TrEMBL record:
GO terms for biological process: tRNA wobble position uridine thiolation. Keywords: Transferase. Residues 2-26 form the 2-thiouridine synthetase TtuA-like N-terminal LIM domain. GO terms for cellular component: cytosolic tRNA wobble base thiouridylase complex. Pfam families: ATP_bind_3, TtuA_LIM_N. InterPro entries: Rossmann-like_a/b/a_fold, TilS/TtcA_N, tRNA_thiolation_TtcA_Ctu1, TtuA-like_LIM_N. Residues 50-221 form the tRNA(Ile)-lysidine/2-thiocytidine synthase N-terminal domain. This is Unannotated protein. SUPFAM superfamilies: Adenine nucleotide alpha hydrolases-like (SSF52402). GO terms for molecular function: transferase activity; tRNA binding. It comes from freshwater metagenome.
Amino acid sequence: MKCVTCRGPAVIDIRRQNANYCVDHFFEQCRRQVTKAIDEWKMIEPSDRVLVAVSGGKDSLAIWDLLIELGYQADGFYVGLGIGEYSEVSHSHAAAFAESRGLTLLTVDIPTSYGYDIPTGSRAARRAPCSACGLSKRHLFDAAALEGGYDVLVTGHNLDDEAAVLFGNTLHWHTEYLGRQLPVLPARDGFPKKVKPLVRLTERETAAYCLLKGIDYLVDECPMAVGNRHLSYKEALNDIEVKSPGAKHSFYFGFLDRASKHFAPEADEDREGLEPCLTCGAPTPSGTCAFCRLVDRAGGHQPEPVPVELGAIRTRTTS
């Protein structure tokens, strides 16, 4: 197996491109695909302050590394979920990555700051664990980006993730979600600009990137994710991809090119009429936002003010 660029020994094949790459040209390919996504969708300007949502997994650490290599000013933000050893290990990977590169990692620990964890919070609020987790992380990511004065919030969603979400939303015709499933969501009142620069790379490619770069990441799936439908959608699409390489790419980018605009009006309508949450000030349809209701039902509390730049968010600067 030879590299399509230099004809040297290849280390990875990318079947949807019918191409193989050596280590150096695979790294170049990853940078090229991220750059193409950023440029095509106007995700990040060179002068932007960027906050990367970091989990300690391969995708978030890969995009943080790639953005730094591409010259962007990017800090990381980690949310401690209180899921026992899983959360401890995930934080250690995120912190080790930041320390090894002299980067800034901001953290908030939900049990310490809000008085609940995801397992007990999901039961108390009668939400699926992944629902309670996603709700909590989205709220805290948004708050960190806005309070920290960041221009862009980056998440590590890759092509597999986006194709699986699109598959689920299409199966159930969640049209309001289809209208928002874009690589970029612009900033608006109470929400930061959110971007997904990994949408042109697959999960396999981000794993290979980390392996070849020597980036140690959390391999295990979250123990709370057992039975998550999103994982079954990924498996179904993986089976299709084996028989038809490039199917995920065609499905997702075909939707963006040909169909997403038809769902935009419903998504815009869903965003109208938001007002500040009575407790935290985040945008909500009325009264108290879903995050604050979750905190209340889980027996938690809003964080006490602390004398740091980002309130409940602790800043960790490594040298």
